[in-house]
Amino acid sequence: MQDNVYKYNFARWESLAREKALFTRPRLDLTPESAREYLELERLGIEPAGKRVLCLASGGGQQSAAFALLGADVTVFDLSPSQLERDQAAADHYGMKIRTQQGDMRDLSCFEADSFDLVWQPYSLNFVPDSRVVFAQVSRILRSDGLYYFMCANPFFAGLTHEAWNGEGYTLKHRYEDERVTTYPDQEWVYDQSAAERRIEQPVEYTQTLSRMMNALIKEGFQLAYFGEITSDYPGSQPGDWGHFTSIAPPWIESVWRYAPRTR
Q1: Which residues of 185-215 are buried (b: 16+ CB within 10 A; e: fewer)?
Q2: What is the pTM of this model?
Q3: pLDDT digits (tens, 9 = 90+) for 154-203
Q4: What residue numbers bound the domain in which 237 lies?
Q5: Region of 57 on the Ramachandran plot (φ > 0 left; ψ -120 to 50 alpha; else beta)
Q6: CATH at 113
Q7: For the chain, what is the domain count?
């Protein structure tokens, strides 16, 4: 499915990997203890040891390494070949075996039904227009009673950043609706923009309303097991900077869903 969405995301993430952006740097300093803390598994109620885990749209050698160190049987699926190379490099560093598969999150037909106990999807769902397509794919490959974790933009604040500060608050300028295209400049902490070999295109994301996402998951047979809003608290932050914005408006949400098809 190499449509314009595929092509744009492929080119952008290959460029980010080339510039060693934050989310493309393998975690090579993990221990089982720090891996568990990094993934925050206690809070989420997830135990990965002995489980078949798919790190979905999760290349870069970070989550895959953490799960493998915790005794999981890990497969990584990602659009970017360079990101998958980082996963393999991290696995080699720790002397562990993982599997990697290149592809689009909207098409998981390379996997058999009931292949995984846990599907772990960090921030990536907003890179495709319709999350329902991804949910249907995940429901097919997840075994009954398996878990699906994903993180995404807070639907209400999608596209809103610290630059929306008007002196009194952060002005919401866009309608709350599905599949509205939004883009914004990369934050300075994403990669060293002053040293970049060439310009990297800004992220293109698609808004996903909470009602459509949740109703789609329920329709596929998922039950909500955990829901959280993610904020940050940066000491010394001031109104109009990223730290202050993320302490006022939680820009991300995360959830864990249990697949229970018998209740459909």
Answers
A1: ebeeebbeeeeeeeebeebbbbbbbeebbee
A2: 0.94
A3: 988 777 788 889 999 988 888 889 999 998 888 777 888 777 777 888 99
A4: 4-263
A5: left
A6: 3.40.50.150
A7: 1
